[in-house]
Amino acid sequence: MSGAVLYGAPAPGLVEVPAGALQVSPLTPGSADLAGMADGSIDAAVVLAPGGTLERDAVLAQALRVLRPGGVLTALAPKDKGGSRLRKSLEAFGVTVAEDARRHHRFCRVVRPQAVVGLEAAIAAGAPRIVPALGFWSQPGVFSWDRLDPGSALLLQALPPLAGEGADLGCGVGVLAARVLASPAVTRLTGVELDRRAVECARRNLDDPRVTLRWADARQAGLEGLDFVVMNPPFHDGGAEDRDLGVAFVRAAAAMLRKGGTCWLVANRHLPYEAPLREAFASVDVRAEGGGYKVFEARR
User: Fold this and answer.
1) Sorting pLDDT into bands at 50, 70 and 90, what band is 241?
2) Fewer CB within 10 Å of terminal CB in the chain, N or C?
């Protein structure tokens, strides 16, 4: 194999991306898996580096692994989201880094030498594992990968036994889905998740014939006629708060439900979801509050 790979979606004009570069971000449904590519099989890689240390170093290590000697890695990140640490991360692999800065980003260019160090350790540190605090398989880079986020915890406390056919939108590694499946009255559950890594962990965590998992954007899942939906919708896109994202989840959930179907949703108290909920559903009730979050039950 030869050519180039692209990890992430840099803003237009921010960096030169080789023509025909293969997308390898786990947040792009249908993309290739960088971890599955052969050593030394790529000529060039462009990486919009993630902000988390373990995730970032693992991605950079994978990119260096698949590059042929003499191949070029261009890594970039916003200065305030890991960019200031990018050079140091790369130099830990024993490579020479040329660095510059523009448009609030740091850019690092590396020509892959014959020998690099520390790739296996960085890849292992960013690999899936069972997280004791969760009791589930998870992986650095996945939302709230090493702990139960407080919104989901509140929703778990408030969630009653459900019944029929439903969906978990933005299912992550399957923590909410596992609670839903504890009800024998649930006949089928579709988990929809944008992050391939979370989907792969959820496959390990949810050993139940009633479950179907989809690597997809929940806003375009194409589900309909459901009895229930559960969700802790995202409100960040590319690291920036995007309130419209959660509103789109609300509207998508309403479109998936049959008349009389219910949506159980947790959201930060400051997010303006109540008006969209009342527009999309026949009734909306607050079932729990705490820690800056609200749990809603909305009936179609």
Assistant:
1) very low
2) N
